[in-house]
Amino acid sequence: MAAKAKTAYRCTECGADHAKWQGKCDACGAWNTLVEEIIAAASPTKNARRAHGSKGLAHGGAVLDTPRLRDVAGTESHRLRTGLAEFDFVLGGGVVPGSMVLVGGEPGIGKSTILLQVAARLESAGHPALYVSGEESPLQVKLRADRLGGGSLDVSLLGETNLETILATAHERRPSVMMVDSIQTVFTGDLEGAPGNVGQVRECAARLMRFAKESGTAVFVVGHVTKGGGIAGPKTLEHIVDTVLYFEGENALDHRLLRATKNRFGSVDEIGVFRMTSEGLLPVDNPSALFLGDRADAATSGSAVTALIEGSRPVLLEIQGLAAKAGYGTPQRVCTGFDARRLALLLAVLDKRAGLSFAQLDVFLNVVGGVQAGEPAADLAVAAALASSVYDRALPRDAIFVGELGLGGEVRPVSQVDRRLAEADKMGMRTAYVSDRGLPRRAPKSLKVVGVADLAALVKELVR
Ligand SMILES: Nc1ncnc2c1ncn2[C@@H]1O[C@H](COP(=O)(O)OP(=O)(O)O)[C@@H](O)[C@H]1O
Ligand SMILES: [Mg+2]
After folding, report:
1. Closest CA to 420 of 388, 380, 386
2. 329 and 181 in one domain?
3. Same domain, yes or no: 223 and 294
């Protein structure tokens, strides 16, 4: 190996360098902000900084051509399709050669499984795949491959954590796609820090990115999510890579959501839905059917269905509300998959505009399936579910509720109502409650559309 690169501990707040790690920055006094970085000339991160960097450094560099954009050679590179429909969909149509994708998620959610499946499918399609495992022994990976089948035994394996060795091997083998599982186990000998610390993760990710761009190999890196929900090695890692995919889902449930939170080659906030089986993760063709699949058969109060746009697709979701007599003290408000402050606002609107007081009631709200209902279009369903629970009267099972609630209790129109209603119709819904000011231009024939002016009118019609 080459002589050890010179490193320093740089403060991420003020940029001051320190020879040794310490808890507090001498220059600005901030705590826990020092990150080990290479300061010798030949480091890629250093070069990158120089290229974008300060005026003084630019002098003495080489003078390069600056062609007009129209003269830049090449076309959009051909995407590699894995054939795992939901995976390709979330990426924006397949794997982009030379791209770097970060796959984040909690332990046990299925990151290694999906990447081995992707590697297997690409290998079978004639695109050589290299799976680098620093987390699990080669035998463990093989046992998973045995279980998954489908060509995963043909994938090449490298059990290594030293970045220099990984890159040297990859340069030699030239795979079309390389999986690095995980970025927290990989280290470069150029830094003193242990694998997994911020400096290591950043430097290794930057070098893997450079390798991806130079070689055209698509690089997937697994990143563990810390308790706070971020990928260890902070946001910097997300800034480096082209695409960030998050794997979510309740561990107890067998379905998993794959979400793109950043994508240089496609739209963000698309979700892909999978089911975890013994043969690995299987794409779910019809997410609405999955999310509505476990609804109670009998007419239960407190359940309302809404249609939200997740990424570019309409998806039906069940919202469950339960209002129960509070014990002693302040009534509880507990919600899963919905913003707590939004719930507080809707409770106030229900009280003031529809005469439903929750002051003596505990309120529980749950979006079924571990999905986050972040769109205001879910308001009407949330309010309907809670009103239904208070009066213990079930809402029609085949109705959907789509609308944003204003502070005056008015039901406001939402975007893309036609697409939401089309999805509802497809899923066998028969009535749609929407804003009377945002009626769809063309509703499906078998769906009755009811325009609602305000919350009080809806409560009066359905539950009171
Ligand atoms: N024989 C099996 N049948 C079905 N599911 C399994 C089996 N073995 C493991 N799993 C699932 O695979 C998950 C582990 O997935 P893995 O890809 O290793 O997660 P990660 O890499 O994100 O930590 C387990 O939580 C379990 O749900
Ligand atoms: Mg794993």
Report:
1. 380
2. no
3. no
Q: How many CB atoms lie within 10 A of CB 390?
A: 24
CATH number, domain with residue 383: 3.30.230.10
Tell the residue nearest (CA) to atom 16 of ligand 1: 110
Identify whether residues 303 and 443 lie together within a single domain: yes
Q: Is 153 helix (H, G, I), strand (E, B) or coil?
A: helix
The 10s digit of each residue's pLDDT in 265-316 is 988 878 888 999 988 999 988 888 888 877 776 678 999 999 999 877 899 9
Residue 396 lies in a domain: yes
Residue 272 lies in a domain: yes
Please report whether residue 221 resides in a domain. yes
Q: How many domains does the chain have?
A: 3
| Ligand 1 pocket member 366 (CB < 6 A) | no
| Ligand 2 center from residue 441 Cα (angstroms) | 48
Instruction: Give the CATH number, domain containing residue 95.
Output: 3.40.50.300
Cβ count near 66 (within 10 Å): 5
User: pLDDT tens, 133-173?
Assistant: 999 999 999 999 999 988 899 999 999 999 999 999 999 99
pLDDT tens digits, 205-242: 999 999 999 999 999 999 987 666 566 655 678 889 99
Ligand 1 contacts CB of residue 109 (under 6 A): yes
Print the domain residue range for 308: 290-462
Q: Whose CA is nearest to atom 10 of ligand 1?
A: 278
For ligand 1, whether the C-beta of 249 sits within 6 Å is no
Q: Which residue has the tokens 């749950």?
A: 366
Residue 446 maps to a domain: yes
How far is ligand 1, taken at its centre, from the CA of residue 118, in Å? 15
SS3 state at 117: helix
Q: Which of 285, 319, 339 is the last residue of a domain?
A: 285
Specify the pTM: 0.79
Half-sphere exposure of 392 (CA within 13 A, CB side): 2
Please tell me the residue having the least CA distance from ligand 1 atom 5. 278
pLDDT in tens, 1-60: 455 678 899 998 898 999 998 999 999 999 988 888 888 654 444 444 444 444 445 567
CA of 159 to the centre of ligand 1 (A): 20
How far is ligand 2, taken at its centre, from the CA of residue 453, in Å?
A: 51
**Residues within 5 Å of ion ligand 2 by Cβ?**
112
CA distances from 155 to 120, 347, 376 (A): 6, 54, 45
Ligand 1 pocket member 278 (CB < 6 A): yes
